[in-house]
Amino acid sequence: MPTLVILRHGQSTWNAENRFTGWVDVDLSERGESEAREAGRLLAAEPGLELDTVHTSLLTRAVRTANLVLDEMQRSYLGVQRSWRLNERHYGALQGLNKSETANLHGLEQVKIWRRSYDIAPPPVRLDDENHPMNDARYRGVPLSALPATECLADVVRRLLPYWEDDIAPQLIEGRTVFVVAHGNSLRALVKQLESISDADIVGLDIPTGVPRIYELDDQLGVIRARYLGDAEVAKAAAEAVARQAEQ
Prior knowledge:
Layout: E1 3-8, H1 13-16, H2 30-45, E2 53-56, H3 60-73, E3 80-82, H4 99-106, H5 108-116, H6 153-173, E4 177-182, H7 184-195, E5 213-217, E6 223-228, H8 232-243
Parallel strand pairs: 1-4, 2-3, 2-4
Antiparallel strand pairs: 1-5, 5-6
Helix pairs in contact: 2-3, 4-5, 6-7
């Protein structure tokens, strides 16, 4: 049975500061490191679960989360594929700004639209802005036309689907257990594809940091069962905390 495990990275330093992060490469907080290790313990304790391959974004918070999980599971030897297509949504000119201060400046409703609408992106960054990915060496091999200056969730879905179809799905069809460590919005895009969630309903989905979610799939990669590991109430509370960030 194909099995997919997804994990949003542990809390980052900018998560803790309630700032828009996007493609800015920040590290895990101490809490984020603890969340990653706990995720590793949960996965190690799951009966019959044996990871075969790992995928992460190119951002440090996802890379380090995966490393900490694999260390905890004593599986540091597993092969890892990394792709910019698993990166967090690019928040454009909002990157680095405090979410609640931005809400005070532009209004809570406008920030809610920028954060949660499916097809409305924040203001873009300029090409000469340090936050434009063309100015980051890790994206030198990516055509400029593919690099975002800002993104809505629909844009994340479009850039993630080729990676799902070409890299992740074939491994699942082969029967491998695949582990994907990424970000709130890239995982929302992946879950939208997996669970056939509508454009309207995906707006209300939040992914908690550091809580593994397991999908048991059929031969056509249809979802048979999906669940978070650990205490369900803890996962629910963590997801609700994500939803309230702009109001804090």
